[in-house]
Amino acid sequence: MRHATEHADVPTAELDTALRGGPFHVALRAAIAARGLPLQRVQHHLSRHGVKVGVTSLSYWQQGARRPQRPESLRAVRALEEILQLPDESLIRLLADPGRQASAGRPSARSYRSLVEASDVLSRLQTELGWFLDGGLQTLGHHERVRIGARRELAGRESHHIVRAHRDGADRFVAVHHGDPGSSPGEMAVLALENCRTGRVRRDQDTGVLVAELLFGTRLRAGETFLFRYGIEDGTAGVCREYADRFGFPGGQYALQVSFDAAALPARCHRFTQHSPAAPRGGRQELAVSGPHHSVHLVEPRIRPGVVGIAWDWE
């Protein structure tokens, strides 16, 4: 998670605002200030990432006198996102030309802004389905398998839940799926695979969010456990670069497995954690893709509120 520094009293509001709307130099300056790093130390960290950038260039970047444009400079910006513990693509996207983005269609990676907007949409859709807090259920185990297809797309996922009711009357679960940028929730399919059936489904095209009721067919008493399994068929977006789950309440074991098509294997994979979708990423750990099964996984013995995920790079 994000490490404390001697400048931990620097407000994060300025950084959050800058990451949402830019411009690039303001976001970079706020991120460096929030980390409490002098430019010499930033340059040192970049050199350890194999990127050479002068202190003068860094100063120009954060003043807005120059913008990174060359391939080596853009590689430095991506390294800065990791060094400054920022969300992936948070600085790079601020350098994109608005005209080029509009002509190219939707971006290929989620932005900070899209995550915030999706969170607001999710709250609205869950309210429409009458789902509040945890729905009277505690998660004892959550095992998830994500499939990445031959086009490097999020093809689908399957979730196996073990829950326990902490109040009488719990009879459903509301599943959430956040498609990648450019996805079409209207073309996604919800599959009730075991011990449940599909109820109401709500979709939001702009954010790619889908929420679906999974009905148990029985009302649980407090203390009773229940197992169910469902899937989401997606495959409607472009290149996928990560998958993450957000947890609002503590719980039991969580396991995430990402399986890649043999025709589309990533160059590198790593796990990460966040306090929230808008928070800097931490807990980075490299994951090796298994040879025969083309997959990586992580296991959390105990779920804690926050975000856990796996990200990967394509050649």
TrEMBL record:
UniProt-recorded name of the protein: XRE family transcriptional regulator
Organism per entry: Streptomyces bungoensis
Superkingdom of source: Bacteria
